[in-house]
Amino acid sequence: MNNLKRVVLLVITISYCFSPSHQHRPPRLSLLQRGIRKKLENEPTSISKGFTTYFYDQTLDHFNYNPQSYTTFKQRYDLNFKHWGGSPRHAPIFAFLGDEAALGRHPRVGFMMENAPRFRALQVYIEHRFYGESNPLGSMKKSLQNATIRGYFNSAQALADYAEILIYLKNKLSAHNSPIIVIGGSYGGQLAVWFRLKYPHVAHGALASSAPILYFDDITPQDAYYSVVSKDFWDVSESCYKTIQKSWLEIDKIASKPHGLAVLSKKFNTCRQLRNCDELKEYLDRMYAGTAQYDDPPTYPVTQVCGGIDGAPKGTDILGRIVAGINAYLEDTKCRDTDYTPSYETYQGWNWQTCSELVMPIDHGYDTMFWPSNFSLSEWSKHCRRSFGVEPRPHWITTYYGGQDIKLILKKFASNIIFSNGLRDPYSSGGVLQNISDSLVAVVTTNGSHCLDLESSKPDDPEWLVTQRKTVFRIIRGWIKEYYATLSATHKLAL
Amino acid sequence: MNNLKRVVLLVITISYCFSPSHQHRPPRLSLLQRGIRKKLENEPTSISKGFTTYFYDQTLDHFNYNPQSYTTFKQRYDLNFKHWGGSPRHAPIFAFLGDEAALGRHPRVGFMMENAPRFRALQVYIEHRFYGESNPLGSMKKSLQNATIRGYFNSAQALADYAEILIYLKNKLSAHNSPIIVIGGSYGGQLAVWFRLKYPHVAHGALASSAPILYFDDITPQDAYYSVVSKDFWDVSESCYKTIQKSWLEIDKIASKPHGLAVLSKKFNTCRQLRNCDELKEYLDRMYAGTAQYDDPPTYPVTQVCGGIDGAPKGTDILGRIVAGINAYLEDTKCRDTDYTPSYETYQGWNWQTCSELVMPIDHGYDTMFWPSNFSLSEWSKHCRRSFGVEPRPHWITTYYGGQDIKLILKKFASNIIFSNGLRDPYSSGGVLQNISDSLVAVVTTNGSHCLDLESSKPDDPEWLVTQRKTVFRIIRGWIKEYYATLSATHKLAL
């Protein structure tokens, strides 16, 4: 997912922001930083180049046999045959598993597209049900208003979709012996891991980048995400970290004064006057988290922000430094849009997914550079009941996919999964960072960020990133080589 | 399942039984031989001995989030703590996965009950959703009449039920590190395999007896079941085999004559007059298949039947020999109930399960001791549409669980499954009969029958059966030993 979402509950703190009304405010689902993430200098690779779009008549409900479940909907998938070695050679298939966004321009298909020629691989890119053109009722809004239809919008159904389409393709192309490698990042990375675990007869291996599969059911501490964000800032500059840490109380102080919000609005150049001080604090929260999550070379946003904060003229006060930090990162003079009520389908869809099954309890905790706050499941449930009338099932993900004691469980079960993580990415805290076995391998980079390795390579990529991608390439090549050997031994096929 | 069912379509043959009306007769779902299987001399072990019954509030629909799916129903499970070593010792849990019958007196829990003391294992026995007391609407009939509710009656939901209950139990008993071994036979054996594959974080290993996991989607030839039945008879007596083979035409001949059905009814001592000759042929079909499937020591029903057929006085005609065969097996003088319209819930439930997802195409083919007939999916679908208004999904089982190329797929994926099969059991033809890897092991006995190894041992058990059970015991002990070693290494726990 471009933006795994933080489930943030603003709770009662000792700050001035506290007022009785806050106690009853629903926890907010913070979409990740998209809005604040700086526009990429190099536009992402266009998925449309060389790809052709198809639609599959997908089963709405794979796990039931009531009349509704026999309904189908059109699911989009894109194919690129350009480099494929063909079925007689059992040439591989790379399948990029769509995440919580429409197919289209997607920076994360770079790795797949660059490596397809080397593997002579067919490229498949499948859209996740309910996003983009794969919505049963034509639009996310309509689907989410329909209490029956939205029920089918979940990960288990999505994995079964991928299985059906990939099996269909193999049959259609007579490519029964072509090994499939599934690829995904963030939520898509979770899906890739889960797909290899649940459908080993369809996917021969999985490359899962920045997939926080352990950020469920309290396997990972709730403050782990923000601890990494804070550590990223600390590593760049202790003074920057401390300035940010102090800024929250400053904001509260000013906000509590007469016309305080007007003062803050002006200071931060907000597009319209702030409604309350939380609005500003959460804007900043999203920005810091975003710079940490996408702390990509060559600019390294955290360094940019801290450069601004630390580099402000002597005597600049705390909030002045924060403003300087924002300006150093965003580098433009536009007003700052602190209003965070996105209407686009990714936000809406993700709100549903996290209100039903994907409950990832993430909050500041008490030991980060952010104001103290704790995730409360009961508040989250209240929000979900209010939004959809449903109760989240916080234990379902671990019931269905596991997660607890993953090393013990998978040491002698499963194979061929790469858990790729960059430690600057706050989501790496919910990832698998150690090898589980010879073929359940963690590829970890100290300086990597969220899903960076899946993006197209650039001339100025640092050495560690080049090495990371080479390592991943080598591992996948190893899987495929071994697969052909086993295939040959099992089927006595000449390859 | 006590009785994996054959999906038999009587098709047009050259026999006299042919009449235009047969062409349109729906294919019949033959329940396995229960009705004709001879009463066991030793009554099956009572499950109630030492077990206590509990009920779990089970989620009706694990894979959806529509309002209906939040409904729960009471699911029965039985526990026996007598031999359990307790959670501080991480003592194992044996979980018998219910199949298509109510919990209760079940011959297949013998192995579990006998071995629990040796493993100091907690015994759990979970009823399959919709059977027995675990029916959402209180009765199978009511549930099957409800097009929405019956939709939730399938294997994927059943596996998720087992996962929920077992996780709940582990939490409740603080037995997080107690390894669970799931056990099942026939359909329950399929469930055990699939459970280990889908929920390795819940089950550490699976013992699957007589589980024809490959009898789907044409992985196994349609006539494989009847080929084994025929081979069982051939191995006992070539002349017996040939007598049976000739008998079908004899029946047709007599049936085609005036009052032919009355003659046959009298000859075979049917409880009421035969409606057509198919009724008699299918009665015999079920009996032969049943004797082969349950060709258990010490009596060996196939040998009994052939003893009667071959031992009839010289000059006895073909049908007279067949009658002698039946009498030798059933040993009583009651009339023969050829009417096959069972009303009990197992039959009804299984009819639904095979009409939705569990499509196992089984028929005589052209080279067995039975009359030629072929399975027709379109006829089967017609029957299902007529019964329930639904279309079977014949490819779903292999889509979700796999099956094709199982050796290639699982060689380096999964572990700790015993595929136990007796080659006299016709369902062994759809089972895994060769080791896939070190820990995906086939235990095969030449003389074994359907699920025999799961039953209680008896003083006169033949040596091969005693050895088979010992082998299974040793393998499971090995898994648990290895588990404790890994647990200790991973958690650094003193055991």
UniProtKB/TrEMBL annotation, chains A, B:
<dbReference type="InterPro" id="IPR008758">
    <property type="entry name" value="Peptidase_S28"/>
</dbReference>
<keyword id="KW-0325">Glycoprotein</keyword>
<keyword id="KW-0378">Hydrolase</keyword>
<keyword id="KW-0645">Protease</keyword>
<comment type="similarity">
    <text>Belongs to the peptidase S28 family.</text>
</comment>
<keyword id="KW-0732">Signal</keyword>
<dbReference type="Pfam" id="PF05577">
    <property type="entry name" value="Peptidase_S28"/>
</dbReference>
<dbReference type="GO" id="GO:0004180">
    <property type="term" value="F:carboxypeptidase activity"/>
</dbReference>
<keyword id="KW-0121">Carboxypeptidase</keyword>
<dbReference type="InterPro" id="IPR029058">
    <property type="entry name" value="AB_hydrolase_fold"/>
</dbReference>
<dbReference type="GO" id="GO:0008239">
    <property type="term" value="F:dipeptidyl-peptidase activity"/>
</dbReference>
<feature type="signal peptide">
    <location>
        <begin position="1"/>
        <end position="23"/>
    </location>
</feature>
<protein>
    <submittedName>
        <fullName>Lysosomal Pro-X carboxypeptidase</fullName>
    </submittedName>
</protein>
<dbReference type="InterPro" id="IPR042269">
    <property type="entry name" value="Ser_carbopepase_S28_SKS"/>
</dbReference>
<dbReference type="GO" id="GO:0070008">
    <property type="term" value="F:serine-type exopeptidase activity"/>
</dbReference>
<dbReference type="GO" id="GO:0006508">
    <property type="term" value="P:proteolysis"/>
</dbReference>
